[in-house]
Design a protein that fits this description.
Blueprint lengths: L1 E9 L3 H8 L5 H4 L3 E8 L8 E8 L2 E13 L3 E7 L3 E12 L2 E13 L1 H9 L1 H23 L5
Amino acid sequence: MKVAEEVLNIDAPVETVFGIVGNSQRISEWMDEVVETEHIYNPGQPVGTRFRQVVVQRGHRREYTGEVMIYDENREVVIDLDLGGFVMRIRYYLQELQNGVRLTYTANCVQGKLVFRLALFMFRGLVQGMGVRALANVKRIAESEHGSAVE
């Protein structure tokens, strides 16, 4: 079940944008809610890496685990987040443009009990808003690093 989708054009090279969204050590720079990310299993390559994230949402601290499912450098990152009662598949897809990158974020509920899926459907606006803010932060950071930010 698709929960959220957001598309944003960024005036920066694909390598710069991927260096932000594809680097787990930088996630707290562009996702306001994430306060900690720790690898709990690293097979020596991105795919299969499992991690723990601590997020603070509306004053509540929560801990989630996730796994990197797809890691195609400068093109795509897909992670599955186990949020307790359901699993969200988060996808960041980069399409190189003549003057930058089109970054597409999608969030899909891929597994979960019906009651959690219904609750998620009701709160999809919150998930969409998190994606909008995160992509705006990626855009700001990438364009600043590239020197193309509009003052």
